Amino acid sequence: MNGLLSGKNILIMGVANDRSIAWAIAQSLASQGAAIAFTYENERVEERVRKLAGTLPNTVVLPCNVTVDTEIDSLAATLKEQFGVLHGLVHSIAFAKTEELEGLFVDTSRDGFALAHDISAYSLVAVAQRMYPLMTEGGSIMTMTYLGAERAMKNYNVMGVAKAALEASVRYLANDLGQFNVRVNAISAGPIRTLAAKGIKDFNSILRSVEEKAPMRRTTEVAEVGDTALFLMSHLSRGITGEIIFVDNGYHIVGV
Ligand SMILES: NC(=O)c1ccc[n+]([C@@H]2O[C@H](COP(=O)([O-])OP(=O)(O)OC[C@H]3O[C@@H](n4cnc5c(N)ncnc54)[C@H](O)[C@@H]3O)[C@@H](O)[C@H]2O)c1
To answer: What Enzyme Commission number(s) does the record list for this chain (predicted)?
Structure first.
C-alpha cells in the first residue's frame, strides 16, 4: 500500500476501548499505511486493546503504565528490538480522581493535584525522553489537550491545570527536540463522549452548549481528531512544531 505513512512506525498510547480518541487516531494512521505499536495501561484493558489492534494490519501490543519508569524503559527497549526506528508517538493519556472533577478547584487535594499532573502531563515528558532516541530518521510526537488548559471551565478543575502543564511541556519539548528533527504538537479537541469524559460532571450540558455556540453548530467527531493526527504524523506538517491545534468546530474562537 502506498499511503502517507507507508514505512512509518508509530507508537500509540491511550487506547482503552473503541470510543477512545487514540483508537480513532489509529484507524486514520493505519488507513495511510502506518505500522502501529499499541500500549495498554493494565490487564483490565489488555484483552480489549488486543482485539482492536487485531483488526488492523501490522500491529504489536505492549504493556505500559506511564506512572512506572521501568515499564517505559522496557517499552523503549522492545520497540528498538521490534521496529529499530520509530517515526511517531501519539500520547492520548490523562487521569484525575473523579472527586476532583466536580465542585470547586480550590478544594483540590495535594494527592489529587500530583496524580493528575503525573499521569496527564509528566508522562509525556517521561515517554518522549525514552522515545526520541529511536527517532533516528526524524519524528513527530503529539498529545491530546482541551480548552480547559486556557480557560477556567466548570468541573474540569485540576485537569485544566494539568493540561496547561502539558501544553507548556509541548513547547519546551518542541524547543529541545527540534535539533533532532523531532516535532512536538498537541491537538485541542472539543468534547467527545469517551470513558475519560464520563468522569466529568454534567458532560451532556457541555455537548449541548457546543452544538449551540460552535461556528459549525456541531460537536467534534472523533474521526476529525484522527485525521488531524494523521496530518501531524505525516510530512505534510513538517513545518509545524510546538503548536496547539484546535479541532473543535471553532468553539474556542467564539465570545459571548
Ligand atoms: N473526550 C474528550 O472530550 C477530550 C477532549 C479533549 C482532550 N481529551 C484528551 O484525550 C486523551 C484521551 O482521552 P479519551 O477521551 O480518548 O478517553 P479514554 O478514557 O478512552 O483514554 C484515556 C486513556 O488514558 C489511559 N491511562 C490513564 N492512566 C494511565 C496510566 N497510568 N498509564 C497508561 N495509560 C493510562 C487509559 O488507559 C485510557 O486508554 C486524554 O488526554 C484526554 O484528556 C479528551
So the answer is: 1.3.1.9
